[in-house]
Design a protein that fits this description.
The chain is mainly alpha-helical. The chain contains ten helices and five strands, in the order αααααααβααββββα. It binds a DNA duplex through helix 3 and helix 6.
Length: 253
DNA sequence: AAAACTCTCAACCGCGCACAG
DNA sequence: ACTGTGCGCGGTTGAGAGTTT
């Protein structure tokens, strides 16, 4: 059956917005308010997809947007929030008035990542890099990131009703401490932050065997897979599983 | 001067979730 | 319980600006 398209693509403009389109959108939203994005383009006389209108408004035309460079304080706030929330750009943006998720995401990818690498910190894990060269993450870093992000932790964020601020619960102190390179918690630096977060083990599907080994239970088989071995680090310092066989997809039931 | 290369960021795309019927 | 619709999110792309050769 498939999903119905969000708009009739053959009758919509794409690419950069013109001044006239911006003005139409602004004046329509000033008159009628936000919302009902699907029907907005037609009502506003725009040959645009509703999603495109929403994005243009939220990321560029909204009057409360703070344009211009990020301050040092904003930088540090983003870094701290990212260490707690990961790539949850909308949650991060919700705590930076006047900034959009898209803006923060772009800023993260173009500036902050580099900044953290310069400090010797892995931007994904917020842990010190184990580097061969000063600024580049190694395969081991990638491995650690993969294991921690995808297998080791599952971040549970309780979703709430629309339009309400997200409710996250119970910051895991252990994680926070390990991520805080200065030893100062986010609570101390940003007491006004309400970051409720809980972290738990992932459900049944995958289980950590050792730091680099995961157990994968899928509908075909149960098997152990060593990420180190798969990346060619078997029998090295990076790999402690001492079992090349684990790198294969042999069943381990 | 211009070609090649790099960087930035606005915009697009596809997916998942919530909700109404 | 199921299905369709709309919205919002995160990842990715690509045009254009800036820089280097």
């Amino acid at each position: 059956m498939g999903r119905s398209p969000c708009c009739e693509k053959e009758h919509t403009n794409k690419g950069a917005w013109t001044k006239e389109e911006d003005e139409r959108l602004i004046s329509y939203i000033k008159l009628h308010g936000e919302g009902c994005w699907r029907s907005l383009p037609k009502a506003a006389g725009l040959l645009r997809c509703g999603k495109s209108c929403r994005l243009r408004w939220i990321n560029y035309l909204r009057p409360d947007l703070k344009r211009g460079n990020f301050t040092e304080e904003e930088d540090e706030l983003i870094i701290n929030l990212h260490s707690l929330l990961g790539n949850k750009w909308s949650l991060i943006a919700a705590r930076l008035p006047g900034r959009t998720d898209n803006e923060i995401k772009n800023y993260w990818n173009t500036h902050i990542k580099r900044k953290l690498h310069g400090r010797g910190i892995d931007p994904q894990t917020h842990r010190p890099l184990i580097t061969c060269t000063p600024n580049k993450p190694t395969a081991i870093d990638t491995l650690t990131t993969t294991a921690n992000d995808n297998v080791g932790f599952q971040i549970n964020m309780q979703k709430t009703k629309k339009q309400q601020p997200p409710e996250l619960s119970n910051i895991n102190n252990e994680k926070e401490d390990s991520n805080s390179s200065s030893g100062v918690t986010t609570d101390e630096v940003y007491p006004e932050l309400n970051l409720e977060l809980s972290i738990g083990l992932p459900a049944q599907q995958k289980r950590i065997i050792s730091s680099s080994c995961i157990q994968v239970n899928d509908k075909f088989s149960k098997r152990r897979v060593c990420l180190c071995c798969n990346l060619g680090f078997q029998n090295s310092q990076a790999c402690s599983c001492k079992s090349m066989a684990m790198a294969t997809t042999n069943n381990y039931t």
